[in-house]
Design brief:
Blueprint: H1 2-22, H2 26-50, H3 62-73, H4 81-87, H5 94-105, H6 111-115, H7 117-122, H8 124-132, H9 134-139, H10 141-148, H11 151-154, H12 158-166, H13 168-173, H14 175-181, H15 185-188, H16 192-199, H17 202-207, H18 209-216, H19 219-223, H20 226-232, H21 236-241, H22 243-258, H23 264-272, H24 274-297, H25 299-314, H26 325-334, E1 340-342, E2 348-350
Antiparallel strand pairs: 1-2
Helix pairs in contact: 2-23, 3-22, 4-12, 5-8, 8-12, 12-16, 16-20
């Protein structure tokens, strides 16, 4: 019996191994497919990284910058549970619904109550629904400012802060409120899904360079969150206006290629246009070299100089006025004593009546 069992057990193990190899489990199938997909994307990313220097080249053309920004826009953000949770509206009971209606109909009655943090803490759902009504908040900016400027309140409730920063048209219309709210960048970067909405307010960043430096200095933090990087470096005016931040955008694009954060179809498009990018770069370098030669030769200036000399030779000689000695003597006689006369050298002299003593009419 023991001899039979010793023979059957190895055979059973061999059969099980054969079955697993022939019919793998669903999880194993998924892992193999993922590995196969990764191997399919690997030639694209590897070849692209070979053509990408570690830092932004100095001779990067405007067309290459535009294509770089197009590549960043193709970054896949993925799902964000925190953002979805903050965007979900809280349920209200009958009393809270009634309070919300009364508040919208008569906001002046609750103007002082909204200023207190205690009242806001007691009515979280009402405040969320009120802030999510962007049209009503735009129509009552003084009431909205009471909530928006209360940093002590909304920094305790990230969902409220998320709804507040979503109202980007309001912040564009009232920049004084915006500059106060946006100064808390240290708090916003602790909540990437909220900071993403701030970076999407391209109009404000294009108007106020101080905000650009305040938020774009966190480039190491931006690179860790693809959704934030896509929103930040999607502002083409900022990226083109500031060379330092343009370099950060380039390094993020390289990081996205390395980590395969860009969608597969766009990655293939980048791989296929490599030859065209090299050709455009060589043409741009050739044009720049030719322009340098033209500037050193200074041919246009020489042609203008020769043309000027030729025109001087062709111009007829100018007639000079002859000086008659008699006329000059008569003019000297006609001048009275004590008058100012201009000599031929350009100076001014006085001729007095007592010319023999060298004095003027006053005896000086």
């Amino acid at each position: 019996m023991n001899k039979t069992a010793s023979i059957i057990l190895p055979c059973t193990l061999l059969f099980a191994l054969f079955a697993l190899s022939a019919f793998p489990l669903p999880g194993v199938i998924g892992e193999k497919r993922a590995a196969h997909a990764q191997s399919m994307d690997e030639p694209y990313s590897g070849a692209l990284l070979e053509d990408m220097p570690a830092a932004l080249p100095d001779n990067y053309t405007d067309d290459e910058i535009d294509r770089m920004l197009d590549d960043i826009e193709a970054v896949e953000e993925g799902a964000d549970p925190d953002r979805e949770k903050a965007a979900s509206a809280p349920e209200l009971n009958e009393a809270e619904k009634k309070l919300l209606v009364e508040l919208k109909n008569d906001p002046d009655s609750y103007y002082d109550s909204v200023q207190t943090t205690v009242w806001l803490d007691m009515h979280y759902g009402v405040v969320w629904h009120l802030c999510s009504d962007f049209a009503w908040m735009d129509a009552h900016p003084r009431f909205a400012a009471r909530i928006y400027l209360n940093y002590r309140y909304w920094q305790q409730y990230p969902a409220i802060a998320y709804i507040i920063v979503l109202n980007r048209p309001f912040f564009v219309r009232y920049p004084r409120i915006t500059l106060v709210v946006y100064q808390h960048d240290a708090w916003f970067i602790r909540h990437p899904y909220i900071a993403r909405e701030i970076y999407l307010n391209h109009v404000i960043f294009n108007r106020y360079p101080g905000l650009v430096h305040r938020y774009y200095r966190h480039h190491e933090w931006i690179r860790r969150y693809p959704a934030v990087a896509r929103a930040a470096y999607g502002n083409r005016k900022v990226v083109k206006a500031y060379p330092g931040y343009r370099g950060h955008a380039y390094r993020f694009r390289r990081h996205a290629v390395e980590k395969r954060l860009i969608s597969a179809p766009h990655m293939k498009k980048m791989y296929e246009r490599r030859g065209e990018d090299k050709r455009r770069r060589s043409e741009a370098a050739k044009i720049k070299k030719d322009n340098r030669k033209t500037v050193k030769y200074r041919r246009p200036e020489k042609e203008r100089r020769d043309k000027g000399r030729q025109s001087e030779r062709e111009r007829p000689p100018r007639e000079q006025k002859r000086v008659v000695p008699g006329d000059q003597t008569r003019r000297k006689i006609e001048r009275g004593d004590g008058e100012k006369t201009r000599t031929e050298g350009g100076g001014v002299q006085r001729r007095g009546g007592d010319a023999g003593n060298g004095k003027d009419a006053r005896g000086r």
